[in-house]
Amino acid sequence: MTTRDVTSWRAVAAATGAADRTAAEDGIRLAYRTAGLTEPARFVWADSPRAAVEAVEQLDGAGKSVREEVRTRPWAHERRSTYDALGAMGWAARWSATGAQLWDTTSALAERIRVGVVAELAGKSGDGTAVRLVLLDAVLGQHDAAWLAAFEESERLAGLAQVARNAGWWWPYENAVVVAERPETLHRDEAGRLDRADGPALAYRDGFALHAWRGMPVPAAFLEELDSLTPQRIREEANAELRRVMLEHFGYDRYLEESAAEPVHRDETGVLWRVPLPGDEDVVMVEVVNSTPEPDGTHRTYWLRVPPSTRTAKDGVAWTFGLGGEEYAPLRQT
């Protein structure tokens, strides 16, 4: 498989916008025929995985789930035959060049969607068992891209691949199939994690959405106040993880400046600052000045976040180079 092929499946996993319903339904029919099943008599479309779960719960006369037949068995058969043909090392190389490049981001995204659906549909009791059971019947469509990338030429998986390229998650039953639309928007950082400060990182047309900052789930209301943060509000936040998000958005250097922090150590490398945070580790940073002047003759100041255990500025600067303070002796500071 070429890099171009992996890139195309990466695009499938990240695709947004309306599904091609005709192409997706044709792919589902092909998957049923390939599995030796009668084509489904009815298709039910839903605007999100959440809406799809609700639709499944209301299905009448759909029959039993056939996920095992249309997805699990052909998948396992294809993997076994590919493994037998390539051998252990050959299979490892195939997976490394294909699915492994997509697995972390797609599997993490699928899990976030599951958690979000359960959280919204579990009800006041908080018991999401019934919702989780419905989710077990889902074929992940576009979010099966990692596995499908490893079997690009498989005729046995052609139907599954066609659905993945054209729709979101789907639920196959004997007489009916529920199919979810793809998301309308998706925002991720360089590492592939859900990330957006000014709205939902993942949103579907019916309003089902996930909010996140650099991969960490956050409440929608939390993001709304990021632009009006103050050092006091940050200190008052009881949730340590949310407080760290606040600090990253606000800026550690700005937080130190506006908190009236006092330096705890100075030496030839810079100034060490420390600000205690209730119920969390201290914010400790080294302030260093670039010895190389900017074009206008000024010298830029940098702030380096260092471990709370740091006791001297030199130790902090050395830590950023992976050294101990006693080892750090630059010939020329830049």
Structural domain tally: 2
Distance between the termini: 45 Å
Q: Regions with pLDDT < 50 over 5+ consecutive residues?
A: none
Summed up, the helix count is 13
| Secondary-structure element order, N to C | HHEHHHHHHEEEEEEEHHHHEEEEH
Which bin fits the share of residues in helices? 40-55%
**Fraction of residues in β-strands:** 5-15%
Measured on Cα atoms, how large is the radius of gyration? 26 Å
Class derived from helix and strand content: alpha+beta
| Order of strands across the main sheet | 9-10-11-12
What characterizes the major β-sheet? 4 strands, antiparallel
**Global geometry:** elongated
Number of strands: 12
Task: Give a verbal description of the structure.
The chain is α+β, with helices and mostly antiparallel strands and 334 residues long. The mean pLDDT is 90. Strand 10 and strand 11 (283-289) form a beta hairpin. It starts with a helix and ends in a 14-residue tail after the last helix. It folds into two domains: 3-182, no CATH class; 231-320. The strands form four sheets. A four-stranded antiparallel β-sheet has the order 9-10-11-12, sandwiched between helices. A three-stranded mixed β-sheet has the order 1-3-2. Strands 4-5-6 form a three-stranded antiparallel β-sheet, covered by helices on one side. Helix 2 (21-34) runs antiparallel to helix 8. Helices cover 44% and strands 14% of the residues. It is built from 13 helices and twelve strands. The chain is elongated and about 75 Å long.
